[in-house]
Write a structure and sequence with these properties.
It is a single chain. The protein is an alpha/beta fold and about 140 residues long. It has a single domain, classed as 3-Layer(aba) Sandwich (Rossmann fold). The protein contains 8 helices and 6 strands; from the N terminus they run E-H-H-E-H-H-H-E-H-E-H-E-E-H. The longest helix is centred in the N-terminal third of the chain and has 11 residues.
């Protein structure tokens, strides 16, 4: 099952435990295939470099570069081209939907209301991490 997760889900999963972390563990176990685009990895690196996350990174003794490298190794990378705007309220979110479409993903997992408001794009369901895990991996819902 191919899944695209948004940047906030990546950051939560990489830096804390809980349901986003469970998604990464499922990918490590080969139960889901995470899909990313290069632009998503750039955004992930930028967010992980935020000053407010520095204490957590220091606590974990990890760098943004190490976490992005982990994400690259964990996910399948797909080339995504620009196109007409999809998410009018937040065009930066378009990359997640484009990646899902190009990758043939089954789901987008997000906490972003702009994406969740769609509920579906090109036949791809958009769910929260809780909804996704409850549906397919209920033993991972806290």
């Amino acid at each position: 099952m191919r899944v695209v997760i948004d940047t906030n889900v990546w950051v939560s999963g990489l830096l804390w435990q809980g349901m986003p972390w469970s998604l990464l563990c499922l990918a490590e176990a080969g139960k889901v295939e995470l899909c990313v685009a290069p632009a998503m990895l750039v955004e992930l690196a930028e967010v992980l470099s935020y000053e407010r996350l520095r204490p957590r990174l220091e606590q974990l003794q990890l760098t943004p570069a190490e976490l992005v490298a982990y994400a690259i190794n964990l996910a399948s990378v797909f080339d995504v081209s620009e196109g007409a705007p999809i998410v009018a309220d937040d065009p930066d979110d378009d990359v997640f939907l484009r990646c899902a479409s190009v990758a043939g993903a089954d789901y987008v997992v997000s906490g972003d209301r702009h994406l969740l408001n769609f509920s579906e794009y090109a036949g791809i369901r958009i769910l929260t991490d809780r909804e996704f895990l409850a549906r397919f991996f209920p033993d991972h819902v806290d």
